[in-house]
Each structure stands twice: as structure tokens, then as C-alpha cells.
Amino acid sequence: MPSQSETSNSQTRPSTQDTTQYQHLIVEAGIRPGVGLIQLNRPKALNALNTPLMEELRAVLAQWDDDPTIRCVVLTGNERAFAAGADIREMADQSAISMYLRDQFRTWDAVRRFRKPLLACVRGYALGGGLELALLCDMIFAGESAKFGCPEIKLGIIPGAGATQWLPRLLGKQRAMELILTGEIVSAKEMAQWGILNRIAPDDTVLDLTLNVAETIAQQAPIAVLAAKEAIQHAYETFLTEGILVERKVFFLLFASEDQKEGMQAFLEKRKPQWQGS
Ligand code: CAA
Asked: Using 50, 70 and 90 to split pLDDT, how confident is the model at 6?
């Protein structure tokens, strides 16, 4: 959780710990006036986004969408990782049909549909689904240690939670191709130069900075804030839905390939994958 210095602000109110028990999240409503904080909390797995975590995230956001005391939400991880992607352990043995049936991205859709401003505060890794989760937020603030990338290609798959659609829109085709086809990890500084981050700050102050911005938003006229978010989202999303569906179908299809099995098994066994092209 944020340290004393990270949350120090003359207007900081005592936070109210949500009484609901979450296994994979730490949730504080009212960490600042009108601001809710959600911390992804699977530190041993670098906050890999498994189904129970995403279900909890969906539940908190649904609750806060209906809560007039929450006007802006900050989503963060810990110093080592915002999130290192969807949970590879959970996906490694899936088939194309089981992936299609379980449709893990329904919970991602719920994040995208959250009506109030959602600010990502990224420290450490934001990879694969972790980057995609940050991209679903309305702003991204990054600590100097933040590292971004789409390493799915190294697992024999492609991004499945929107990156093939978001990144060309946000970065242009060429940089999106580079990130997705090489799987390389890029620094916060580089991502900022590419125009995708709101601001970078030292790791120990970036959460405070994000909460300050959230607090400013929370002080604005609540209905106008909702309307502004809705209008801006439309600027990006009018032609997005079809692209998301195409990405999802080919993502599920890749679970019919030997290379997906090999790529994920190799990750879990900490060795280099041997690609068969089948
Ligand atoms: N899923 C499941 N477990 C993960 C994980 C993930 N995405 N990322 C890290 N972990 C686990 C590791 O398995 C490891 O667990 P054990 O201690 O039980 O072995 C633990 O977190 C710590 O990870 P490392 O030991 O690998 O830590 P590191 O500092 O050496 O490396 C890393 C850090 C470069 C981020 C490396 O963990 C890594 O490459 N992670 C996978 C990143 C990735 O491929 N993400 C994409 C996932 S697929 C996806 O997201 C699809 C989509 O579009 C939705």
C-alpha cells in the first residue's frame, strides 16, 4: 500500500478499507476525497492476471460505478510489477475451444465499460495483459522503473486483450508492429517519448502524483466527468469493437497450435522454446 509519504496531502482523509474481503486485491475507498484505490496483489506471480483476480476487479468496479462517493479510481500494482500479463499457468493447458468457452476477456470488457475515470499507476512490469489493462485505463502514470511490452509472441501467441487494436491507434502501425512482433520490453522513458504516458515520476512519488490528479478529477462536476469520459472514449472506439472481436478469435485459435503449448510450457520450465510452426 502507499507509504505515508506517498499519500501525504493536506486533504487526505483517513481511508476506509473496503469491508469486502478480496483475495487478490487491496481496496481502499476514500483514500482521498472521492478517490478509490485498487492495488493488484499477487506479488509472488508479479500480479499475473488470473480469472479470480479479474473477477474481483470487475466486482469492485461494478460496486464503485454505483457508489456516488467514488468519483475517480486509481489502479496500481507494486514496485516490481503493475502486472506481468495474463496468467500463463492458467492458460498453458487450454484448448482453442476451452479458451473460447471461458472467454476470459469478459472481465477486461467490464474494465473498459467502467464509467468513471480510471487512472493507471505503473511501477515495474506492465507486460502483455498487464499493458492491456493499463491501456484500458483513461490515463497512465509511470514510475521511472516501469517497463512495458507485449511478450506474447515469445509464448507462441499474440495479445488477446486489445493490444493489436489499441497500439496502432495510440502509437501508429510501425511502433505497434515493433512491440508486438519483437516482444521487446521498452522503458518508461521510451514509452513517454512515444506519447503513450501522461507523466513519469520517481517510483516513490508516482502514486502520490496519480492520486493528486485523481483528487482533482474527483472535485469536478460528477455528471460532466462521466459525459466527458464517454465522449472521449467514442473518439477511439467507434471502429474498435470489430477489431477486438477479430483479435479475440485468432487469439483463441492459437490455442489449437503446438507452438502455444511449447511456448507456455517452456516459460513454466524456464527454458527456450523450440518452435515447430504447427
Ligand atoms: N503468468 C504466470 N506467472 C507469471 C507470469 C505470468 N504472466 N509472469 C511472471 N510469473 C511468475 C513466474 O512464473 C515466477 O513464478 P515462480 O516463482 O513460481 O517460478 C514469478 O512470477 C516471478 O517471475 P520470474 O521468476 O520470471 O521473474 P523475473 O524477474 O526473472 O522475470 C519477467 C520477470 C520478465 C516479467 C518474467 O516473469 C516474464 O517474462 N513473465 C511473463 C511475461 C509474459 O509473457 N506476459 C504475457 C502473458 S500472456 C498474455 O498476457 C495474453 C494476453 O494478451 C491477455
From this structure: very low
Which residue matches cell numbers 493488484? Answer: 40
How much is the CA Rg of the chain, to the nearest whole Å? 18
Q: What angle do CA 185, 188, 192 make, to 5 degrees?
A: 115
Q: Which residue has the higher pLDDT, 232 or 38?
A: 38
Q: Is 251 exposed, middle or buried (0-12, 13-18, 19+ CB in 10 A)?
A: buried
- Which protein residue's CA is at the shortest distance from atom 45 of ligand 1? 85
The Å distance, Cα 36 to ligand 1 centre, comes to 28
3-state helix, strand, coil in the chain (%, to 5): 50, 15, 35
Mean pLDDT of the chain: 91
By most ligand atoms within 8 Å of CB, the mutation choice from 50, 79, 88 for ligand 1 is: 88
Q: How far apart are CA 88 and CA 266, in angstroms?
A: 11
CATH fold for domain 222-269: Lyase 2-enoyl-coa Hydratase; Chain  A, domain 2 (1.10.12)
Q: Does ligand 1 come within 6 angstroms of the Cβ of 119?
A: no
